[in-house]
Design brief:
By secondary structure, this protein is α/β, with parallel strands linked by helices. The chain has helices at 11-22, 44-51, 72-89, 110-124, 143-152, 172-184, 203-213, 226-236, 245-253, 260-266; strands spanning 2-6, 26-30, 56-59, 94-98, 129-134, 137-138, 157-160, 166-167, 170-171, 190-195, 201-202, 221-224. The radius of gyration is 19 Å and the shape is globular. InterPro entries: ComplexI_NDUFA9_subunit, Epimerase_deHydtase, NAD(P)-bd_dom_sf.
């Protein structure tokens, strides 16, 4: 297939590109390294030269925090919405949107709400496609994983509420399998799939797993009040943008999903996330 892929240089996008190229697909990359400034691609006509003659379009652009000129509203909503409309105008036969778990009717942060806004645009178009909403994705090149690995290696872990937040990380290969199948399976209209791993766990349990892979013993945990950590995050985000208060709020809410629909779609058991370490 001829496939237009946005975000080729990002963590998820680069993995998608390598998988699909290895399967023999012809990938056209749309990112800053290939002369495409996503921030300026907010009208359907901006995309027409790229979407023309493509069999499929995959949007994997995403940011977890706003830095520099990168804004959620443009990168998550306006540019993807224009891309989807251009794909429809050009008769693209399949569109895949990499969204996020939590980008639903309960979305409460700009990150989630802007992802949902683009998802809603795709749902409203007469295009066969998939909206994939992954949890924390584990694989080589993940900035979030690198941060958690550094945190796990500390001699004392000071965690909000002792790390009781629920997460359900997914192996990168299960996400790639989902993208691969979403390109080929029969599809009428737009379908949404939540992507999460086979095991829900607390954040503290996840850090314990990371420590085990570092050859370290169980962590020493100092529980801190959530309100205190939230207050500190307003300062910490200037040192490390990933420490933004909204990210802490999303973690506190939990990031889990029913995986039965995903397993039925893939036709195989999900891989433990730690196998990607």
């Amino acid at each position: 297939m001829d496939i237009l892929l946005t975000g080729c240089s990002g963590f998820i996008g680069s993995h998608i590109r390598h998988r699909l190229e290895n399967l023999g697909h012809n990938i056209t990359c749309a990112d800053r390294h290939h002369g495409v400034d996503f921030k300026r691609m907010t009208r359907p006509e901006d995309w027409l030269s790229l979407t023309r003659n493509q069999d499929a379009v995959i949007n994997s652009v995403g940011i977890i925090v706003e830095t520099g000129g990168n804004r959620f509203e443009i990168l998550h909503h306006q540019a993807p919405a224009a891309l989807f409309r251009a794909a429809g105008d050009c008769g693209v036969s399949r569109v895949i949107q990499i969204s996020a778990l939590g980008a639903d009717e309960n979305a409460f942060t700009p990150y989630q709400r802007t992802k949902k806004a683009a998802d809603d645009v795709l749902r409203g178009l007469d295009l066969p496609g998939f909206i994939l909403r992954p949890s924390l994705v584990i694989g080589r090149g993940s900035a979030s994983l690198a941060l958690f690995q550094r945190l796990a290696g500390l001699p004392l872990l000071m965690l909000a509420d002792g790390g009781r937040q629920r997460i359900q990380p997914i192996h990168i290969d299960d996400l790639l399998d989902t993208v691969d199948k979403a390109l080929s399976v029969e599809c009428q209209g737009c379908r949404s799939l939540d992507l999460a791993g086979p095991q829900a766990m607390s954040f503290a349990q996840w850090l314990t797993i990371l420590r085990q892979h570092q050859g370290k013993g169980p962590p020493r945990i100092l529980p801190l009040p959530y309100s205190l950590v939230l207050g500190l995050s307003h300062l910490g985000r200037f040192i490390l943008p990933l420490m933004h208060p909204d990210n802490l709020r999303m973690m506190q809410q939990g990031n889990t999903a029913d995986t039965a629909p995903l397993e039925a779609f893939l036709g195989h058991p999900l891989r433990p996330a730690e196998d990607a370490l």
